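Quick question, first post here. What does this chain look like in 3D?
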Amino acid sequence: MSHPPKKQKFLIDVDCGTDDAQAIMMALAAPSVKVLAITCVGGNTPLDNVCKNVLRVLKICNRPEIPVYRGMDTPILGEHVHASDFHGKDGLGDVPDASAPGIENIQKEHAVDMMIKIATKHAGQLSLIATGPLTNLAMAVRMDPTFPKKLKDLYIMGGNMESRGNTTACGEFNFVADPEAAYMVLNDFTCPTYIATWEHSCRSKLSWEWYDQWVNMGTEKAEFIKKIYAHSMQYSRSEKEVKEMVSGAGFVSCDAYAMAAAIDKSTVTSSLETALTVELNGKFTRGMMVLDLIDELKKPNKAFVMNGCDMEKFKVLMENSVK
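> Answer (accepted):
Ran it through. Tokens below.
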């Protein structure tokens, strides 16, 4: 008798804005994945909103049993950057739901403690997917230096590979929001690490025709996505945004690229294997990810920087997430 294949075990760390919501929905729709927990970090929106937004996503996906933990609400140095102009003040497009679950549904334990506990319990089997600032991960490795060794692998949406920014001239939001945390994670995490950068996301954008069909599929989940994305779409479809984007117009769901790679590695068609670090001191470049392509840093741990996406496979994962 053949046994069903073992499910991939996921721990998802988010600063739940619109694209984090999309990434969570993608993971929950994947039959090969078991989401063990979701941890929250301040970022796109303040931490209370992040927690409430995750609960709202779990409700729409009918998965209220997945535990949600509250993590770090400020970056390591406490210098806040929010993205409320893009994601809405509440992080989900400012379209509140009166029947959404309340903050009392958040677990009592701290997210960082639980990350260590879950990784210890499932040592060698756990994929960690981080789609927000990396503050919780940095705190976890400081509290338990063996934490990265317990992970099967790590997937990050963040950073950049060509010094192209979306928050500062050279900085991507998640890394700029906590450069020290990003530096610590890229330095101290020795597990296989895969990074979906800002440029990778922009190069793998979907057409607006595809987006319009996707959000109009008529399901409850598609309606939810359409509603929460309406605010940011006014910005994304404007001429200013098209000028800022890499390679023209289209829909970019940044966090979904990291999640797709975690679900199915074959969605990544090429990658650069290189040591990485983060600039902490530059006047214009603080928070910028640095690719050490000439091995100047002599770092033993290298990461895989995604540099190509199988768009047909990616579209299927996106479509399944709203069915």
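The radius of gyration is 18 Å.
The first strand starts at residue 8 and ends at 14.
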